[in-house]
Design brief:
alpha+beta; seven-stranded antiparallel β-sheet; two-stranded antiparallel sheet; 4 helices; 29% helix; elongated
Length: 180
Amino acid sequence: MKRFLFLSMLVFIAVMTYVSVHVKEDNTPLPQKLEKAMRLTKMKKYHDDDYDYVVRYPAFFEQTPDSLLDKGSSRFSFWQDSTELVQTTFVEPNADSLTIEQAMAKYATELHATHQQKGPDYFILSGTLHTDSEAISGRRFYAKFVMHRKLWFVQTLAYPEDCEQAVKRLKEEIDKWKVW
C-alpha cells in the first residue's frame, strides 16, 4: 500500500512538472486572436424579411433575436473580456428627401465623422464613437448608408480602436454591401 501511494505521488509530480514546463498559457492579445479568427471564420448570411436585404456577419458573432429589434433591424455582436464588437443594420425613412451629399453632410456632423467617402447611391462615414456630448475613448465606428427610394439602409460597425486590423474583413464586407 505504501509503495502504491509513493508511486502515485511520484507519477502526479511528474505529470505536473511536464504540464508546467510544456503547456504554455496563450498570452496573445485579444485583438490579434480576433484578427486571426476573422480571417478564418465562415461568414453567415442574415436575410431581413421586412425589407428583403441580406447582410453577412462572422459565424462566431451572436445574433440578437429579431423580436427584440425594430422592423428592418438586425444586430450581431461579439463580447469577450472588455472587447465588444457590434454590427447592426437598420432602415430609416429619408423624410426630408435628402440627396447623398446632403445626407452625408448631415450624418457626418451628427456622428462626428472624420472620414467620408461617397458613391453613386451610398456614402461611408467613420471616426471616433461619441455619446451625445463627448467622444468615447478608444471606440470607433464605421457606417455605410445606402439610399433606395425614400429609405436609408444603414449598416454600422462599432469596435475598439485596438481592433482596427481585426475588423478589416468586416469593413470590406460593409464596403461591398448592396441592398438590392
